[in-house]
Amino acid sequence: MRALKKTIPHLFLMAYLLVILYPFLFVLFSSVKSNNQAIAANPFGPPGSIIFDNYVNAWVNAKISTYFFNSLYIGVLSACLSILLAAMLAFAVTRMRYGRISMVIFQLILLGMLIPNNSLLLPIYGMMRRLDVLDTHLALILPYVANAIPLSVIILAAFMRSIPGEIEEAAVMDGLGSARLFARIIVPLTVPAIVTVFIVNFLGNWNEFLLANYFLSSDELRTLPVGMVGFRDAYNTNYAQMSAGIVFSVLPVMIIYAVLQEKIIEGVTAGSVKG
């Protein structure tokens, strides 16, 4: 009976996993099939012969390579900048003990999470126009960094509060100032939470569509979500190449999760148990 109780949750989780992976397996199989007829003949089965020309055509002819690298560098750069700013702010409000000022700043950060990002589209557009950065990647990097700071600060602050104060006191006794304490002690200890924040921010930047669609008009500057809309319109009758483009769009996120999954779990659960 005890073994049955342990088995039932695993069965539900396996069924849930199959439901989640089934559509992606369909896309993956379709991306290496020769044409629409091969997909229609066996839509959910593996291909009889693997055709990689769809990936080559999507990468080169449909400019997926340009959109891919635009999204990659914008997403990584924005995530890194938001982590740097959020880590310094979290360190200030949790470890530097400014009293009520720290509490007020943290409350303002929480207030920033209550404002829907879509409602800020027009104000952000006006700010980017006054800064004269529209139709440049900077028009996306600045809002991405700003939008990511509230959640990043909350996650990093929760982790930093769990760091024992004795470590900080020992570092101060060794002559470390605030800057070196932050760089040499706090940041290395906060790596699991930083990895988690990086994944959350990168995923949000990678999938963001609204700002990228309105702020960028040059085709060579577009990100992958915006480029995929044009790709869909141009190849809406070629499901094999459409599937190849979809695989390109989800591949970086899957690789990051596969490589950093232990750090992600450690960062999410950090600070939940003390003692």
Question: Can you describe what's shown?
Answer:
- The protein is mainly alpha-helical and 275 residues long.
- The protein has a domain at 62-234: MetI-like (MetI-like fold).
- It is built from 13 helices and no strands.
- Helix 1 (2-31) runs antiparallel to helix 13 and helix 12 (224-234) packs antiparallel against helix 13 (239-269).
- The chain is globular, with a radius of gyration of 23 Å.
- Mean pLDDT is 82; it is low at 271-275.
Using the CA coordinates, give the radius of gyration.
Answer: 23 Å
Percent of residues in helices comes to over 70%
Strand content range: under 5%
Strand tally is 0
Q: Tell me, what is the CATH class of the domain at 62-234?
A: Mainly Alpha
Order of helices and strands: HHHHHHHHHHHHH
The total of helices stands at 13
Short structural description:
With 275 residues, this protein is an all-alpha fold.
SSE inventory with pairings:
Blueprint: H1 2-31, H2 36-41, H3 53-60, H4 64-95, H5 100-112, H6 121-130, H7 138-161, H8 165-173, H9 178-189, H10 191-207, H11 210-215, H12 224-234, H13 239-269
Helix pairs in contact: 1-13, 3-13, 4-7, 4-10, 4-12, 5-7, 7-10, 10-13, 12-13
